[in-house]
Amino acid sequence: MARRSRAREVALQVLFQDDLNPPTQPEVTEAFLAGRLRAPELIEFARNLISGVRRNRDELDAILSQTADNWSLSRMAVTDRNILRLGAYELLYTSTPPRVAINEAVELSKRFGAKQSPQFVNGILDQLYSRSDEAES
Asked: Which residues touch 58 (CB under 8 Å, ≥6 apart)?
């Protein structure tokens, strides 16, 4: 597994936990990251993803709600919702190439989601990318 893919996986685990429980103490998150990711650059990458999603969660949720026609975030599976937040964050706020961000999110959904999760995640993020690309044009 590619190293950054592993960091995304660990970030997803933290975001999943955040969704079900109040955000944990920073030192708990740091210990979890250090225990799962040995390389400092991967810990930093995962930390940046987590803090970015946490910081922009309300905006990400609003954007995802608008993009996911006929789906409220509360009706989505917790795993799918957090994969979408992570993917949308990478699409909108980072320099990750859009196709890489979408592909990484789809791979996470194959690994952790339900049978139909990959198509669901791909459809929403692809639509979000298309809309953001049109907005920039």
From this structure: none
Question: Is the whole-model pTM more than 0.70?
Answer: yes
Q: Where are the domains of the chain?
A: 3-136
Q: Which residues contact 108 (CB under 8 A, 6 or more apart)?
A: 8, 9, 12, 83, 86, 121
> What is the CATH architecture assignment of 3-136?
Orthogonal Bundle (1.10)
9-27 pLDDT, tens digit per residue, is 999 999 999 999 877 788 9
Collapsed DSSP state (helix, strand, coil) of residue 121: helix
Record the tokens describing residue 65, joined without a space.
């709600």
Identify the H or E element spanning 28. helix 26-36
CA pseudo-torsion sign 45, 131, 78, 98: negative
In single-letter form, the type of residue at position 41 comes to E
| Torsion sign over Cα 111, 114, 117, 118 | positive
- Cβ neighbourhood burial of 73 (10 Å; 0-12, 13-18, 19+): middle
Consecutive H or E run containing 39: none
